[in-house]
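Q: what sequence does this backbone want?
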């Protein structure tokens, strides 16, 4: 049972991580932290190689190693994000507001991610039920309660992200 609950929680964490990377109409540091940058033969998220700070209508990225400025600018421009080197040690990112059509598409995508996560949680529930039947011990009620709690948490995450986008 512990394994099933743990697997359900991992699915929820994965969803939360995916939602953090979805841009919400306002400029968000979480949106940029997930972009991967190739530096020194390795690839990693921007959040691991630089500090990010929000400033009015833009985000300033200050790499821990200033030689990574070019790699960050290339990675963001490749992802079609308006980024440029503000000075030799800082990258500036400005993002225009999202249109109504783009918001509708994002909401549709968020709901799809939520459904996929619910399907993953239900698959874990099925595995747990099979394990209980095979062992002959355990409680299906506990498994169902864990599933219901996980689905409720998924719904909260989805509703919060949709509300954030619709602002």
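A:
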């Amino acid at each position: 049972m512990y394994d099933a609950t743990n697997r359900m929680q991992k699915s929820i964490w994965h969803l939360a991580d995916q939602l953090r990377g979805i841009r919400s109409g306002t400029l968000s540091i979480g949106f940029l932290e997930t972009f991967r940058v190739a530096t020194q033969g390795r690839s990693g998220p921007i959040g691991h190689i630089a500090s990010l700070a929000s400033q009015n209508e833009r985000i300033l990225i200050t790499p821990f190693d200033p030689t990574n400025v070019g790699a960050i600018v290339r990675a963001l421009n490749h992802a079609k994000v308006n980024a440029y080197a503000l000075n030799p040690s800082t990258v500036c990112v400005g993002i225009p507001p999202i249109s109504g059509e783009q918001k509708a598409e994002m909401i549709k995508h968020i709901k799809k991610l939520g459904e996929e996560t619910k399907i993953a949680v239900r698959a874990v529930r099925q595995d747990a039920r099979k394990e209980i039947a095979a062992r002959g011990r355990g409680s299906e009620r506990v498994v169902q309660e864990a599933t219901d709690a996980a689905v409720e948490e998924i719904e909260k995450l989805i509703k919060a992200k949709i509300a954030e986008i619709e602002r």
